[in-house]
């Protein structure tokens, strides 16, 4: 997300310029990373699958035992106003709820109102060069906790993994837990083997991505062979194709893994045919559906 303009944000019931928003240093989001968030892609001012994102926010809040301060209708009203106020049509909308600001730093839940924050930024999609060549990734052990299905703001292990990728001149890190692929530091990961798209099943070790869902829907709709099942580290390393998916990266080929080209034969180290087809379906869906508030 990049913010080059002072967009209107929402903070605890008020709409105000992002540069004017203030929270307490005793906010538990700041002190303990005690909160949950969402990122919703917005195309031509239509938030994509807003209700699904709000449902995932509800699941995250339920998972950390934090009452949702807004109803679906209230969230939708906040989202609509922020989207409308922004000077750009394609956006990356961010929502966050924390357990609020107490008068002291103490772990048990305080009896204070939550902090509710939302802002938007221009959506930055992958560059043409990233699309043409794919990106490089490294693998790392997944050292995160046992509830990676909750979208909490406690992202330090993700951040450290991502920075390790950046330090190695790469874009993403792909996480391995006990010999199985889980996900990327900020994305879900698919592989292709012998023409079959393989996706790790949703469980507590990965975020249930909205893009992950859409990719599997597109595979089903277009009759592309796919299986949802655990993917081993060995299968990842020997894959014909590896892709990362997220609301902002859409479907992006990983063409180098730990310094080795991904794939075999003529397509090794280049975006493969199954991924190129999936991206074409995705782009078509984005332009025909998402951009018109459908899908
Ligand atoms: N992250 N897994 C992780 C750990 C993520 O952080 C994300 C997205 C995803 C993909 O989810 P979706 O398809 O719903 O975007 C998977 C967002 C973009 C972020 O934190 O900025």
UniProtKB/TrEMBL annotation:
Gene3D superfamilies: 3.30.470.10, D-amino Acid Aminotransferase, subunit A, domain 2. Its EC number is 2.6.1.42. It catalyses: L-leucine + 2-oxoglutarate = 4-methyl-2-oxopentanoate + L-glutamate; L-valine + 2-oxoglutarate = 3-methyl-2-oxobutanoate + L-glutamate; L-isoleucine + 2-oxoglutarate = (S)-3-methyl-2-oxopentanoate + L-glutamate. Keywords: Pyridoxal phosphate. GO terms for biological process: amino acid biosynthetic process; carboxylic acid biosynthetic process. Pathway: Amino-acid biosynthesis; L-valine biosynthesis; L-valine from pyruvate: step 4/4; Amino-acid biosynthesis; L-isoleucine biosynthesis; L-isoleucine from 2-oxobutanoate: step 4/4; Amino-acid biosynthesis; L-leucine biosynthesis; L-leucine from 3-methyl-2-oxobutanoate: step 4/4. Belongs to the class-IV pyridoxal-phosphate-dependent aminotransferase family. This is branched-chain-amino-acid transaminase.
């Amino acid at each position: 997300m990049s913010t080059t303009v002072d967009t209107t944000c929402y903070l605890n019931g008020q709409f105000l310029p992002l540069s004017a928003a203030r929270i307490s240093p005793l906010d538990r989001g700041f002190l303990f990373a005690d909160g949950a968030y969402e990122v919703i892609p917005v195309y031509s001012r239509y938030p994509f699958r807003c209700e699904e994102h709000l449902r995932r926010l509800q699941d995250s809040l339920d998972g950390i035992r934090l009452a949702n301060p807004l109803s679906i209708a209230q969230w939708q009203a906040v989202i609509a106003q922020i989207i409308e106020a922004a000077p750009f049509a394609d956006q990356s909308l961010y929502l966050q709820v924390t357990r609020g600001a107490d008068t002291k730093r103490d772990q048990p839940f305080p009896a204070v109102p939550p902090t509710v924050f939302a802002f938007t930024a221009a959506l930055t999609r992958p560059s043409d060069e990233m699309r043409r060549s794919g990106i490089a990734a490294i693998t790392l052990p997944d050292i995160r906790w046992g509830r990676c299905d909750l979208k909490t703001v406690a992202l330090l292990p993700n951040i450290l993994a991502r920075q390790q990728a950046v330090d190695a001149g790469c874009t993403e890190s792909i996480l391995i837990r006990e010999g199985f692929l889980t996900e990327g530091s900020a994305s879900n990961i698919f592989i292709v083997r012998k023409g079959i798209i393989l996706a790790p099943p949703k469980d507590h070790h990965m975020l249930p991505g909205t893009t992950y869902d859409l990719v599997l829907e597109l595979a089903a709709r277009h009759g592309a062979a796919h299986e949802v099942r655990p993917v081993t580290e060995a299968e990842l390393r020997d894959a014909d194709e590896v892709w990362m998916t997220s609301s902002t990266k859409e479907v992006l080929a990983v063409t180098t893994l730990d310094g080795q080209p991904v794939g075999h034969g003529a397509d090794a180290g280049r975006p493969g045919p199954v991924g190129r087809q999936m991206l074409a379906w995705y782009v078509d869906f984005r332009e025909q559906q998402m951009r018109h508030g459908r899908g």
